[in-house]
Design goal:
alpha/beta; Arc Repressor Mutant, subunit A; 4 domains; four-stranded parallel β-sheet; 20 helices; 9 strands; 58% helix; globular
Length: 469
């Protein structure tokens, strides 16, 4: 899995030695594992191996990587045992031996490793008599954890859910809960709705097994007799009272404020976060977009408030989206990170764990954000007169700046007067018509009197190169 991730994120040749150093395994192991990847997932990965250059993957698709990861995950005995413990708790070891086609000794050896991974999250697989079950310090968190777990093991929607319930029934119930004012963002988010539907399923499974959460939340307007009757077919031990905690958690995803002061404080801090971010980038998304994004930030705050730890431990597609954004636009990622840290201090809650979701939501809510750059200072120098320098600056501005944002801030200079200036280092790029301009600067782009598309692309590459470094 680490090899696949390294190859996809590199998006180029990488030597066996570099892979070995990055992953911390021997070159012999790297060679053997790459051979296995080629043999088993050749149609997915299209791996090319060169004695001289190393290895590279031609199909650099995160969805493809997810498909391979799902295959690997579902071969893991530890993950399959966790799945069995969720669906069939309080069974003797012999039961799991038969279900998993393995031996008692293998499961006994595996248990400490499983608990080593679960214990930092307040969970453990414990033995009561000769029966095994999953115990959690926070039952609500356990349900969130296993909702992510099932999605990561089975995709969206998860495959092989037990019982074989109609997920559309659960999705419809979730949407009914989200009909409350202020929940429109969650209703519009099909992936978020699916997560909450799987969370609803996991909660029903746990409530049916006797792992209950007390709640006095009213579900009268959200659960009609017909829907409850259909649920009861699968979960005979679940009563209406068992559903209260499930509905309350979903509703509090959008309306879980302790008081009006908390809501006002978070919304104000969210507005400051957005203002600082877009002003720095020279962007003006508009009031409607800003309103939606403020709701996104407040929604992420409530998510962090009611989720005490990370739930995703396997394949997290949001993480890879954020990672690729960071690779292609490091300065903007760093800006979001810095402003999010200030937001965390303002609201008194660490929001660092939400940066991936916030980046995804900003891009989905306002797609132009993906191409935003921190404005670069560009010095434009022409040996064809100051008016020509102004023409070039105008042409660059028209090409790179638009209504959604400002990518460059040009300054006009004439030649040879510019040679006497002492402040050239403040500019990120120098664009000039002067061949071999006698100025020491790492980014000097030579353009025609009337710049060609190739000239403009060269300027663009220089801007991007600075962002990547």
């Amino acid at each position: 899995m680490q090899i696949i991730e390294s190859l996809i994120l590199k998006d180029d040749w990488i030597t066996i030695q570099q892979l070995s150093d990055a992953i911390g395994a021997s070159q012999r192991t790297m060679t053997a594992d790459i051979a296995t990847l080629k043999k088993r997932w050749a149609s997915y990965l299209n791996i090319e191996v060169s004695v001289k250059q190393g290895v590279r993957i031609h199909n650099c698709s995160i969805a493809m990587m997810g498909s391979v990861f799902l295959d690997i995950f579902n071969e893991s005995l530890a993950l399959r045992w966790l799945k069995e413990l969720l669906y069939h708790p309080r069974k003797p070891l012999e039961y799991y031996e038969e279900r998993l086609f393995t031996s008692r000794s293998t499961l006994n050896r595996l248990l400490p490793r499983i608990n080593g991974a679960l214990s930092p999250r307040g969970m453990t697989v414990c033995r009561r008599g000769n029966n095994y079950e999953i115990h959690a310090d926070d039952e609500q968190y356990l349900r969130q954890f296993f909702a992510s777990f099932l999605i990561e093991l089975g995709g969206i929607p998860p495959k092989d859910c037990q019982p074989d319930i109609d997920m559309q029934l659960l999705a419809g119930t979730v949407k009914k809960i989200l009909e409350a004012p202020g929940c429109h963002l969650l209703r519009e988010d099909d992936i978020g709705t699916m997560f909450l539907s799987v969370f609803y399923l996991v909660s029903l499974i746990r409530e049916n097994q006797g792992y209950t959460i007390a709640s006095d939340y009213s579900i009268a307007a959200q659960m009609d007799d017909e829907t409850f009757g259909r649920l009861s077919v699968y979960f005979s031990a679940v009563t209406r009272q068992n559903l209260c905690a499930i509905h309350e958690f979903i509703a509090r995803k959008q309306n879980g404020w302790d008081d009006d002061d908390e809501q006002s404080r978070v919304q104000s801090a969210a507005q400051v976060f957005l203002d600082q971010t877009f002003q720095t980038l020279g962007l003006s998304p508009g009031k409607q977009v800003l309103h939606k994004l403020r709701n996104v930030i407040t929604m992420m705050y409530l998510t962090a408030k009611f989720r005490p730890g990370a739930t995703s431990v396997l394949f997290d597609r949001v993480y890879y989206f954020s990672l690729l954004f960071q690779m292609h636009n490091r300065p903007v990622y760093a800006l979001i990170e810095e402003n999010l840290a200030q937001f965390s201090r303002d609201v008194g809650l660490d929001m660092g764990c939400c940066i991936q979701d916030i980046l995804l939501w900003i891009c989905l809510t306002w797609p132009p954000f993906h191409g935003c750059l921190l404005p670069k200072k560009v010095l434009v120098v022409s040996d064809f007169g100051r008016q020509h320098s102004a023409f070039l600056a105008q042409m660059l501005t028209g090409f790179f700046n638009h209504d959604d944002g400002v990518a460059i801030q040009p300054t006009v200079a004439s030649y040879p007067d510019v040679l006497e200036e002492a402040s050239r280092d403040v500019y990120d790029i120098i664009v000039t018509t002067v061949p071999n301009l006698p100025i020491s600067h790492p980014h000097i782009i030579l353009v025609n009197d009337y710049p060609s598309h190739e000239n403009l692309c060269a300027v663009y590459r220089a801007l991007r190169q600075q962002d990547e470094t």
